[in-house]
Write a structure and sequence with these properties.
globular, 12 helices, mainly alpha
């Protein structure tokens, strides 16, 4: 008998589970290009592991925010198949940096406020990559997209984060236990392989939220 599969819903009706599945499918189809998305996040994870807590608080909104924003810009161009002008890319990077800078402090205080903040304004990066709007208008547009279905957006980011973090923890354990790798090497390899899903899924979330607005 032919295997029965659930019908793929359009972006305006896409569920959180389907968003994660679409992210994995895109990752598999463009593996080598997407794998590059994991390098900055892996570098940040390894550096933060080996520095004192006070230095982490300095590097998180500066170096960390800049690298994560640049990675999300690249993910948005890749997933959304856009090649905007360099000025638009710089604007998206700076706006993303502004949004990501306070996120680590919100996550430290409690995870949910950090996710809520990123849900509310994190889509400013794909907005500037795709839409012809000014940076200030892009912030308002990101908030409009978030409000289109805030539960879907927040749930999607939360699910993506849980999938990546849990899978990464398992992979680090396997690499250390059976691959005889050091902690830093295992963490770097696991982050390189798994963190791209978070950026791919976030870029696809823009498509969902834009469709819900329309």
């Amino acid at each position: 008998m032919a295997e029965l599969r659930p019908v793929a819903l359009p972006p305006a009706e896409r569920t959180i589970g389907q968003l994660v599945a679409e992210s994995i499918q895109f990752y598999g189809a463009r593996f080598w290009a997407c794998l590059l998305l994991g390098v900055p996040a892996a570098a940040v994870a390894v550096v933060f592991k080996d520095v004192p807590r006070t230095l982490q608080l300095v590097l998180a909104p500066t170096l960390g925010g800049a690298l994560i924003s640049a990675t999300f810009v690249y993910a948005s161009t890749l997933v959304l198949d856009r090649t905007p002008a360099r000025r638009r890319l710089v604007a998206a990077w700076l706006a993303g940096w502004l949004v990501f800078a306070p996120a680590p402090f919100l996550v430290i205080a409690f995870v949910i406020p950090g996710l809520v903040w990123l849900t509310a304004f994190g889509l400013v990066v794909p907005v500037l990559v795709v839409e012809d709007v000014a940076p200030r208008a892009a912030i308002r547009r990101a908030w409009q997209l978030a409000r289109a279905d805030f539960v879907h957006a927040l749930g999607s980011l939360f699910t993506l984060a849980v999938v990546v973090v849990l899978s990464q923890s398992v992979l680090v354990f396997v690499l250390r236990g059976f691959g005889d790798a050091g902690v830093s090497a295992a963490l770097f390899l696991a982050s390189v392989v798994l963190s791209p899903l978070l950026f791919i899924g976030s870029a696809l979330l823009y498509v969902d939220q834009a469709a819900r607005v329309e």
